[in-house]
Request: fold
Amino acid sequence: MFSKHNILISLRSSTWTNLLGQFKFHKSSIESASLVKKNHIGSQKIFANNLYSTHTKSNLFGNYSSQLGSRHQRFTSKMDVNYPSLEGVIRVLNEIAPLHLAESWDNVGLLVEPFTTISIGKIVLTIDLTEKVIEEAKTYGTELIIAYHPPIFQPIKSINHRTWKERLLLDCIQCGIAVYSPHTALDAIKDGINDWLLSPFNIKEVRPINQSSMDTRSTNHYSYRLETVVANENDNKLLERIEKLGKVLKLPSSAVIYTEDKNLPLIINILSENVSTKASIHLSKLDIPPLPGFGVGRIANLTQELTIQEIINRTKQLLKLEHVRLALSPKHKLESTVNSIGVCAGSGGSVLRGLPVDLLITGEMSHHEVLDALYANGSSVILCEHTNTERGYLQVLREKIISKLNNGNVEIIVAKSDADPLNII
Ligand SMILES: [Zn+2]
Reply:
């Protein structure tokens, strides 16, 4: 017996495949369903018209609990239980590369959030989000693309077909694919891209070029310290009100108050109510503690000196490159041994500027930045092209996500179609 139903199902295509495999559809239903899936594989929305027998429908939706969202009807499958939510995956990504470590000019985090993403079964990793990468991701039925470079950087005033970047975003939104970008947060972490660039070498000492600081939000770090005299009971009453705005340490005849920027004016207002406390306020700004080992770029000393030729060989091997570009300082030959190295993934010109090291390794530097390095600092320069210094790390990131997710069901794929746009021919 067949009944006619028009059903809009919003679910991952891998779940759809599971459904086809696990439920005994009528043969013609499977054929129709497959046809519908082929037509809508990208959109992850499947219109199934007149497909299900009453029995199959009852099996299908008996195993689903429906949740009415504000705009879409969602179905959560028991088969989805082992897949993490988008929020869960983002939590893991933020554990790996906390977003507060990103440079202030950067645009990191969840950049595209679809209405109907329920859970994450397939993730594609890429350096750049391009049309080819999205097409590849669609063939896997991906719910999330982690694009190292943020595809949204400049503010956008519209999303239409006018520019190639807007078209990419439209495509992701229409297909229900989320896009997340860690960018400079991933550069800054310990064991991040810059440490990976140094991995072919035995390192004696290493430190970030631009030091990262602790996250003041998560560590309850206070920005200000105030000290004031506590002369009478009225002063004590002020302190009781201040306890809601910061940490108050009461001493025999004074009090120390730690607070954040936003509460400082309120606290000073309260202390100004009494003459004794107002007259004795002593205010000092607190530094944010550094986060050892975290920051942009790395400056390293080798355990044992290596020739420039050997460093080139090892760098080529790590990055799987046949060629790199080399600018030799007047004091160096290929056989010269060096001890100190500065590295910066991607475009290292500004980060590496003026660094007192023997050798710089980065993706790209301008002609004049190279000249400055050679003649002002006596540093030789190895350029590998921008994304060649970043792409190999995607495999490391993949392993990190897998171990943190602790969920064997999530498939993480490094995009095959992602490549540096420049080739030496
Ligand atoms: Zn880059």
Remarks:
- The first helix runs from residue 13 to 22.
- The first strand starts at residue 6 and ends at 10.
- The CA atoms of residues 3 and 53 lie 6 Å apart.
